[in-house]
Amino acid sequence: YPEITEMQAQAIFEAACELRKEGKNPFPEVMIPLVGTLAEYEMQKDVVERVAKETMKKYGVKVRYMIGTMIEIPRACLAAGEIASQAEFFSFGTNDLTQTVLALSRDDAGRFLPGYVDRKIYKEDPFVSIDQEGVGEMMRMGVERGRKVRKDLELGICGEHGGDPASVIFCHDIGLDYVSCSPYRIPVAKLAAAHANLKGKVKIVEKGEK
């Protein structure tokens, strides 16, 4: 249903163009979700670019923007190099990536995951703290393959893991630029980021701001 992408892109660029006419300087970052192949990304990107061009022509203004993708299925991590040839940024959707890598349903996790943690099958609930040996390795692969193709690729995560201290430090260690989390988790995330900042820099973004 490409018309869904078209409708959403139109809403984004109409709002951006109206702000531009008011003298403001919006900079939309359009994120395409659930991409698994370069061809899939390009199909959606073409729709966004066409709508952006048509809308800017209609309003008679120019708006700078970026197009990137969510990395939330294993194949996207494997194809990260190809996807990065066209995508300007990646945001790892760690909630869905955890579901797809571990073949676990987040909705049902509360029924059995406590037992898994008690029996040390998992060190922590993987929906709370990133499973670094599994999901984390897929993320690391995505980072390495993406940055190999596009050196300036902007990388981050969105998901509840962005408010988990161990996950924030892990994200810093593999080279992510920012983490995004729910507002109520920002104080904890900032504390973890401060700890990570002893070695480098990591940015905290409130969910919805990015």
Structure description:
- This protein has 210 residues and is an alpha/beta fold.
- The protein folds into 2 domains: 68 residues, no CATH class; 139 residues, TIM Barrel.
- The chain contains 9 helices and 6 strands; from the N terminus they run αβαβααβαααβαβαβ.
- It has a 6-stranded parallel sheet with strand order 1-2-3-4-5-6.
- Helix 9 links the parallel strand 5 and strand 6.
- Helix 1 packs parallel to helix 2.
- The protein starts with a helix and ends with a strand.
- The relative contact order is 0.11.
CA-CA gap between termini: 25 Å
- How much of the sequence is in beta strands? 5-15%
**H and E order:** HEHEHHEHHHEHEHE
The helix tally amounts to 9
Q: How many DSSP E strands?
A: 6
Q: What's the overall average pLDDT, rounded?
A: 92
Output the radius of gyration. Answer: 18 Å
CATH superfamily heading of the largest domain = Phosphoenolpyruvate-binding domains
State the oligomer: single chain
Shape: globular
Fraction of residues in helix: 40-55%
The description of the largest β-sheet is: 6 strands, parallel
Which class of secondary structure composition applies to the elements?
alpha/beta
Q: What is the gist of this entry?
A:
The chain is of the alpha/beta class.
Q: Layout of SSEs?
A:
Elements: H1 2-21, E1 29-32, H2 38-59, E2 66-71, H3 74-78, H4 80-84, E3 89-93, H5 94-102, H6 109-118, H7 135-149, E4 154-158, H8 165-173, E5 178-181, H9 186-196, E6 203-206
Parallel strand pairs: 1-2, 2-3, 3-4, 4-5, 5-6
